[in-house]
């Protein structure tokens, strides 16, 4: 049963047993109720699934199982679900959806552009939220200033305030395929020295479009348009900006398949697609392999680090090897791929999170060490004009 439920796509409008699923939440719920009726699974079985992985079922399904009398609060308590998360089930919070941003045809800000690539639900938006939240609350004298005229200003502001250290909150919903958000800001090291940065959050569906395009499969009109937009952004002659590409890899998703293919095939597809645009050749400052959901690899960072290293070695050595080669052949970051990992803290029922910025702090510092700075002091201007 567990396998069958995992098989149902957890994102909208996808195929399941040859049918396009409009509402996967409901499909999962219906499947469980059907199994209960047939006796294929019982209450203990359901609780075991939740106990084995608190994120196997999402808040919608758990809430409905409760309202239908299949399980109750006490059952959840007994299998170790903290009260903070059980309390959330009693409130009517839905995952937050953002309005799709308007089209972006170019990045106007002179800045380091940071792109986040990864399959749907791999944790890109959450990772960006954790990074933005950390950046906006730096407590070491550095200050972040958001550009209020960028296309994704509202998105950036909402995301960074959503992730608040040591509080429980509801995570955002998936990014629609046509939505690309541009978030521009500066991080001031000192009054006159700052890092201008633009982060670009892409829908995971886009990576599927890249794969499909590579495999010469039919794209629908919406997909074609979105893919064209992003390709234009990447190859746009108007932007001479340096770029950082973050390949987001979800820990523990090696078996999850999208339209019959695993994460690695889509990541390969995206990498090949970007490589074909020629963008890696000259203006890439760094390629980062960011492993998300590190909490699934243990509690302390040392264990996580070890397990993640072994995980990449076991399931993604080809993909990592290809990224290593890109760094070597294009002389990116002294020919070195950067591998990092991140976790939001404690996540439960897929939608609730008790956020901690422990991991995000490391990632922020590493990213800032890779981005160029602008020095507007008199000495700095002198240096930039005369190169001394
Ligand atoms: N356990 C755990 N789960 C996480 C973490 N980060 C994200 N998730 C889960 O992954 C889900 C998807 O995260 P998103 O950030 O929306 O994924 P995305 O890559 O932006 O997905 P698309 O927008 O569809 O491409 C969240 O709703 C959480 O359930 C984490 O650090 N730990
Ligand atoms: Mg997203």
Question: Which tags fit this structure?
Answer:
about 400 residues, three-stranded antiparallel β-sheet, single chain, alpha/beta, globular, eight-stranded mixed β-sheet, Rossmann fold, binds guanosine-5'-triphosphate, binds magnesium ion
What does this structure look like?
Helix 2 crosses helix 4 (59-67), helix 7 crosses helix 15 (358-370) and helix 9 packs across helix 11 (263-277). The protein has 16 helices and 15 strands. The chain is α/β, with parallel strands linked by helices and 388 residues long. It is 44% helix and 19% strand. The longest helix is centred in the N-terminal third of the chain and has 15 residues, at 24-38. The protein has helices spanning 2-7, 24-38, 43-52, 59-67, 73-78, 83-90, 124-136, 153-162, 204-214, 221-235, 263-277, 279-282, 301-315, 317-329, 358-370, 378-386; strands spanning 14-16, 19-21, 112-117, 143-146, 168-170, 181-190, 193-201, 243-250, 257-258, 261-262, 284-292, 338-341, 345-348, 352-355, 374-375. It folds into two domains: 2-90, no CATH class; 112-375, Rossmann fold (3-Layer(aba) Sandwich). Strands 3, 4, 6, 7, 8, 11, 12 and 15 form an eight-stranded mixed beta sheet that branches. Strands 5-14-13 form a three-stranded antiparallel beta sheet, covered by helices on one side. It has a two-stranded antiparallel ribbon with strand order 1-2. The structure holds guanosine-5'-triphosphate (GTP) and magnesium ion (MG). Residues 11, 55, 118, 120-126, 171-172, 174-175, 203-204, 292-293, 295-296, 343-344, 347, 350-351 line the site of guanosine-5'-triphosphate. Magnesium ion binds at residues 124-125, 174-175, 201.
